[in-house]
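Subject: sequence -> structure tokens, single chain

Hey, anyone have a minute? Need the predicted structure for the following. Not urgent.
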Amino acid sequence: MSLQNTREFLLQEKLFSIRDKVKIMGVDKEELGIFSSKLISIGKNYRLYTIDDQENAILTVKEKAISMRSTYSFFKGEKDDANLIGKLKAKLISIKPKYWFENPNEKKLFTMKGNIWQLKYKIYLEDKVVAEISKKLWKIKDTYGVRIDKSVDDDSAMLILGIVVMLHHEKEEEEERRRHRR
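Reply:
Had a minute. Here:
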């Protein structure tokens, strides 16, 4: 089983690590890849690697450091403007968090609907559900599941994994902000 052609994943955040890490496993709990942040950077930099090759990133995500809205740029492979796939953005003002992914020409491709803070939502491509994310799909501590439609190509599946990890990152940051407000 390889990371790129898998469509059902378990994502597990590594709790005790000096940098953000999310283990990516198949439903049989076999480790397939890792999403990890750079140790030092202005704005978070994340890279997706297969478990067999942790030198060459499949996907790189760069968080915009100073912005009115949460924005993450996605690159195929390493961060290079020629490799830009698109951006994940959050709506500026909204009661419920609203996110979308747009291509470099600012055309919306994916939208997310559901409860992102509870890790129970769906990702849509136009009007079709292409992925489901749920903490309840798999009852393992600190783990949530991602199911991607079999019709989705390998590159889009890796992009969806990146979107899910960044939304999880947003959830964690929001929880941290709430703790500091108390």
